[in-house]
Amino acid sequence: MTESSERSVVVVTGANGLVGAAVCRALVERGAGVRAVVRRGGTAPDLPGVEEHVGEFFDPALAATAVAGADAVVTTVHPMGSDRATQHRIGVEGTRSVARAARDAGVARLVHVSTAAVYRRGPDVGDIDESAALVDDTAGAYAVTKRDAETALGDVDGITRVLLRPPAILGPGPTSVWNTLRPDTMRRSVEARRANPSATFGWVHVTDLAAVSADVATGRVVGSADPGQGPVEGGCTALDVAAGPATARDYYGTVTRALGIDPVWDDDPAWTGRILAARAHAWEWAPSVDLAQALAEIEEGLRR
Q: What is the reported pLDDT for 7?
């Protein structure tokens, strides 16, 4: 199923973000050279083999320079929380622009960090895998523009594309949504602490997401005509990357306990299915961080 690659060169956009920095570390651990694309100079991970490229990742000139002679590209940029037009311009049009530049430069693979938020979920929906229905246009801006970015990448022929769909990405850091930003909102807002305790809390740790990103980008996961066995060569393959089961009680209970505040439990209808990662497991990915470790990391960080 897997094979080592010689010194691969991989471009990582958003290399100073939570996910991008973790991907850079995972690539370096695998012996790859990394071209880290960041908006501000001096913010790329300070790691051996990491070369900083400064500018807007979707700028045609920067993209062409960054991808020239590269073996793969990993795109992690999406302006979450921005207005819908900005999310579309950067997340959809910008990602498509980079993909086209990579294709035109002869890059073999593009790994795009999407989100499980592209799936339609609700009380009437059961377990989800890569064949599940996606959100419609009435969903929030983040889910819709992430969905549209996937569609845009699906239209860029001539390069092998893999769409990673993680749920909540756990991991420490000042920009971490679930370890830092969401808890801060919960500290300040009673409404932000509200949840059905039985609702599904889909999650994956950032180190495990970075591992599969790096393995696919460096060719350690071999291509296949069957998406159940590996990335379809020249095609666009979705991959759910989710760890073990968890509920809102697990996450909200941990955060509120660490902050010394009370959760607000309700019995509103909620999704209680699972995000199935059978395809990722067939690609020989398995999470290394379990739920107890991930929650302990959140609690320790908040108490500190």
A: 82
Could you read off the pLDDT of 138-182 as tens digits, one per residue? 999 999 999 999 999 999 999 999 999 999 999 999 999 999 999
Cβ–Cβ < 8 Å for 173, 77: no
Compute the Cα dihedral for 156, 162, 165, 169 and give only its sign. negative
Q: Which strands sit side by side in the sheet containing 50-54, from one edge to the other? A: 50-54, 33-38, 9-13, 72-75, 109-113, 160-165, 236-240
pTM: 0.95
Tens of pLDDT, residues 54-110: 998 888 999 999 999 999 999 999 998 899 999 999 999 999 999 999 999 999 999
Task: Give residue for tokens 């990405």.
Answer: 169
CA of residue 208 relative to chain centroid, distance: 10
Contact 200, 271 (CB under 8 A): yes
Is residue 195 a part of any domain in this protein? no
Instruction: Using alpha carbons, select from 224, 242, 241 the residue that is nearest to residue 233.
Output: 224
pLDDT (0 to 100) of residue 5:
43
Residue 181 falls inside a structural domain: no
Give residue 50's domain range.
9-169+205-242+273-286
**CATH code of residue 216:** 3.40.50.720
| Cβ neighbours, 10 Å, residue 232 | 16
Altogether, the residues listed in the chain come to a count of 304
**Count of domains for the chain:** 1
Tell me whether residue 70 is in a domain: yes
Q: Is residue 47 part of a domain?
A: yes
